[in-house]
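In the design runs reported in the main text, the only information available to the sequence generator was the tokenized backbone. The following block is the verbatim input for one such run; it is reproduced so that readers can re-run the procedure and compare outputs position by position.
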């Protein structure tokens, strides 16, 4: 089954989270997300607003504690911002973020992967 990927607000930054196959929190910025997440846009927006206020370092160019990826367009191709020394487990993430991240389970571990093509078996 193919997962449909869309951006809820093309042209605008949109941050969302997922959990990888090893249980780590993964942050994605600016590109499309799996369609099942799009029915929860308000929850994701609330989590992003909370994180911007309470975890501003997560939005730096290379967050120290997150597997973080960014997209430069509408294609589902994300590039890593940096490799964390000690990545954050989903179970250790703040509840408001963990709740929305649990909605998207990646089929693979991001590990030290530098490029994630979401349309190539990741979701």
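Verbatim output:
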């Amino acid at each position: 089954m193919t997962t449909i990927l869309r951006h809820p607000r093309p042209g605008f930054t949109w941050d969302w989270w997922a959990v990888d196959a090893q249980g780590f929190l993964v942050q994605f910025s600016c590109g499309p997300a799996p369609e099942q997440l799009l029915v929860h846009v308000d929850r994701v927006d609330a989590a992003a607003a909370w994180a911007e206020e309470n975890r501003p370092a997560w939005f730096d160019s290379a967050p120290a504690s997150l597997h973080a990826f960014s997209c430069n367009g509408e294609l589902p191709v994300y590039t890593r911002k940096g490799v964390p020394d000690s990545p954050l487990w989903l179970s250790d993430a703040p509840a408001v973020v963990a709740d929305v991240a649990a909605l998207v389970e990646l089929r693979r571990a991001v590990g030290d992967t530098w490029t994630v093509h979401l349309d190539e078996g990741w979701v």
